[in-house]
Amino acid sequence: MDTIEDRDAHEALILDSVDRFLERDVKPFAHELEANDTYPDEIVDKMKELGLFGATIAPEYGGLGLPATTYSKIVERVSAVWMSVSGIFNSHLIMAAAVERFGTEAQKQRYLPRFATGELRGAIALTEPDCGTDLQAIRTQARRDGDVYVVNGTKTWITNSIHGHILAVLVKTDANAEPRHKGMSLLLVEKGAGLRVGRKLEKLGYRGIDTAELLFEDCRVPAENLIGGEEGKGLRQIMSGLELGRINVAARGVGIARACLDEAVAYSQTRKTFGKPICEHQSIQIKLADMATQVEAARLLTEFAAKAYDTGRRCDMEAGMAKLFATEAALFNSLEAMRIHGAYGYSKEFNIERYYRDAPLLAIGEGTNELQRIVIARQLIKRNPV
Amino acid sequence: MKVLVAVKRVIDAYVKVRVKADQTGVETANVKMSMNPFDEIGVEQAVRLKEAGTASEIVAVSLGASQCQETIRTALAMGADRGILVETDAELQPLAVAKLLKAVVADEKPDIVILGKQAIDDDSNQTGQMLAALLGWAQGTFTSKLVIDDGIATCTREVDGGLETVSLKMPIVMTTDLRLNEPRYASLPNIMKAKRKPIDVKTPDELGVDIGPRISVLKVVAPAKREAGVKVADAAELVARLRDEAGVI
To answer: Where in chain A do CATH 1.10.540.10 domains reside?
Structure first.
């Protein structure tokens, strides 16, 4: 059994390697790739070498089996350099988590080792043109036809859908089921006939990473690819993965909030107005103090949620709190960093405008912050009955 | 061929070092520690020798407090096969390090010992040379290129004014220069695997080495703060100032 000191030392080694990867293989290229909205192929190759695609997959399936606490620290670091890179492995790992937690042993043996190496990279396909947060309203249908499901429908805002190889797709296997979630299932769909990748979506931020529409036109998927082998479990399977997803988004928020703080602290010591560095002006000090407090509070909430996730108990309230607070911290800090940087913050030459464009996605994606408040309140009442 | 590579735990290269108020040394409490960058180059070279089929085993050795195990783990994650920690809380000076390494060499019988040319904390640049002298082995210091063929090591050395190439009969002591290679960062799966690689712990007493200090440090002070420069109006003023004030021309 490892001691706490061993675990800390081990985590420090992992984070040190991640920092080196970011410093050497991401930071020098992020600005240009982002500006041109270019998919970072070489960074993905380095991520495969580093082993990031197996971060949370169990060692018995070739992964690293990292706890959410370590994983969220990795995501924070990556996002502080370039948030888009974290999206490449995160939705992949949510897909992998669904297979690992709910898949049949045959599905685990078949897919998890190839997910862990990054040989097969994928994502989750939930959102449709008419629904995102209200997942039970999806319309994509999977009709059983002998040994296959025939899938028809449209998904949109699907990260990794152009460069990924496989997707966990939320479908309706029974459109008339009541309650609606009993007719929902999760299918692993490998790219091939009947699955067309539509247009790549233009976005305010989160550039470089592929986000696209997917069109399923009589797409025939082997019935053995139904995760868990039983219909009607899809919503529960994916919601469970979303807890880790929300902790990940919270960690991204911490990363962006910290990057904004770090740049503001450095810039405010070199930029001078009225004969002194602007960090000596009280108005700037108040901003820096608020930003730093946001970062630390966001980090602690994220760690709190990650620890809860690692215990294996339900943690939608904790993950919701972390996601809500940390992503608002990212939004707040990106605007404050821009104000501190003045015109340079607004300039494409500096990183601040990128953080400012990336941060709003965090408040919208993985369940809007409005929805998080509802999740938190419902759990709060449920856990504290009078 | 067996490679012994020495790794030192030092304050991380990116940490701003602060001198202790009592001038006895530098602050190390709550400071990030890492492997000496020149030693990382040494580990990388050892791993490349193994990948090329030249080396069959890499042993990483560190001397110092128990936390040096973390430094050894880094070497194991990069590709070393096993580690040796000579554990002591005493401050080790270059001669003591060289003597301890000599004792480890006697046990391990490597064909090549690789060290950084210097550690970034004390910048002594002595250990490799002292070790070669104690062992009576050939030495290739400041090496920026290494070729091993048929028991002969050809080291390209970075010397003042250019490069010097020496041919050395194995076994040898080699110290690394910056341009020898760019060290890899350990992949996460290799960090996990390194957990299971063995680290053997010994003490200076067990090795029968006297590690008593031979140098006493009088005081440690921070370098003088750099003063702002001056702007000169034209080339004539520059020349005049260099001649009259700086006295360099």
So the answer is: 4-117
